[in-house]
């Protein structure tokens, strides 16, 4: 059985990508892009999963009332709390397991777009 592990969390809103240094101006109304680098628990290597971390208030503040928001690749928190967010992400990812890495990555991709979503291998004819 293969289990997943977060190898790194990169924040696209930080110049150096350091999510631990991210501090929103308003912890109850913010958004930031995250890249999770996830790989097999006891092996080297990782693949990328992209998601947006935001609050309900940020969604309200940044979308018209008549807009429909699809929640794909959104991780919604009530307020910014770095330790709680990282703890939740680690727990979620470590519960993703399967017989193949493809099975595991599919489970991880429920919260973030996998870099190989919709990938079709090139076949030589």
- Main sheet makeup: 6 strands, mixed
- The tally of domains stands at 1
Radius of gyration, taken over Cα atoms and rounded to an integer in Å: 16 Å
Structural class: alpha+beta
Which overall shape is indicated by the principal axes computed on the Cα atoms? globular
Oligomeric assembly:
single chain
Low-confidence stretches: none
Give your account of this protein's structure.
The protein is α+β, with helices and mostly antiparallel strands. It has one domain (2-114). 22% of the residues lie in helices and 28% in strands. It is built from 3 helices and 6 strands, in the order βββαβαβαβ. It has helices at residues 56-62, 82-94, 101-108; strands at residues 2-11, 31-40, 47-54, 74-76, 97-98, 113-114. Strands 1, 2, 3, 4, 5 and 6 form a 6-stranded mixed beta sheet that branches. The protein is globular and about 45 Å long. The mean pLDDT is 92.
Task: Compile the SSE list and pairings.
Layout: E1 2-11, E2 31-40, E3 47-54, H1 56-62, E4 74-76, H2 82-94, E5 97-98, H3 101-108, E6 113-114
Parallel strand pairs: 3-4
Antiparallel strand pairs: 1-2, 1-5, 2-3, 3-6
Keywords:
six-stranded mixed sheet, 3 helices, 125 residues
In a nutshell, what does this entry contain?
This protein has 125 residues and is α+β, with helices and mostly antiparallel strands. The chain has three helices and six strands, in the order βββαβαβαβ.
């Amino acid at each position: 059985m293969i289990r997943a592990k977060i190898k790194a969390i990169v924040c696209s809103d930080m110049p150096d990508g350091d999510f631990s240094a991210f501090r929103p101006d308003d912890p109850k109304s913010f958004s930031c892009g995250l890249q999770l680098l996830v790989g097999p628990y006891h092996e080297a290597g990782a693949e990328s999963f992209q998601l947006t971390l935001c609050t309900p208030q940020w969604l309200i503040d940044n979308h018209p009332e008549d807009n429909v928001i699809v929640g794909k690749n959104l991780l919604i928190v009530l307020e910014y709390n770095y330790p709680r967010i990282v703890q939740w992400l680690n727990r979620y990812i470590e519960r993703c397991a399967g017989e193949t890495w493809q099975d595991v990555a599919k489970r991880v991709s429920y919260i973030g777009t996998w870099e190989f979503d919709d990938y079709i291998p090139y076949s030589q004819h």
